[in-house]
Fold this protein.
Amino acid sequence: MSKRLFPSPAPWFGLDPATLRFLEIHQARAVAGAGRCWRDLGDAVLLHTPDDPEPFFNRLSAVRWADDAAAFDRRLAEALVLFATLGRRPYVWTVPGLSTPGDIDRRLAANGFADLGGGYDMLLVLDPRRERPVAVPPELRIERWSRSTPAKIPVRAAEVALVIADSFGMEPARRPGLEREVGAALASPDFHACLVRWDGEPVATGQRFTFEGASYLSSIGTRPGWRGRGLGGLVSRILAADSLDAGGRYVYLGVHAENETAIAVYRRAGFAILGGRSADMLLR
């Protein structure tokens, strides 16, 4: 029987406000990894990518702005100036029950922002190490990579980028940049990749960023021709178990709200939705 890591009930599983804000900042720091920067502004966290205008990598999160209308408007005006200085479209990631003021989405909408879709954070609440081991077919091989030597990085980065690009339908033009990003991450002690091969072919992957007692999992995907074999769930459980073995107290990931298939996979791997649906508020 699985061990419950957090006996308190959903949606926050007993996590206090300080821990929840820590996880918001932790995610920004993890994503910042290669070629990006992050800055704690005190009442928000800025994630910025100098060479990529993609809003997801140029955003404010962990927003804790004042409820007072005048103070809020002043802080929003300052944020708009900041984005203009960076040459980026203003983008604010809000989480109900965490971001303040409580009606921040309404206030942003009144100032020209639109919700692009949003998603959920999911927290590991069941220990996958207590589950019965899954039988692995002979065609399958699991590889774990961390702190790769310089000679191995190019080949490994290319294989991970191939799987991610195919899994998420990325445009071919973005793949070289993805290879550079993965390559830089593979030199970091905080970054760990899992690659699954089927008859030698790289077919599924996932990543974890583990530091300061928490692990953020990302880029868990399976190439289209190998879906339906439980590889996404296998990678999720491997990354989760390895995170716990590394001393991680909090293991979490993000998923798009409409991706019901992925949400179901993560639930079976021991994750549960943490809080409510976030909103991706982009200035129109």
Remarks:
- The mean pLDDT is 95.
- Residues 69-86 form the longest helix (18 residues).
- The chain has seven helices and 13 strands.
- The two ends are 49 Å apart (CA to CA).
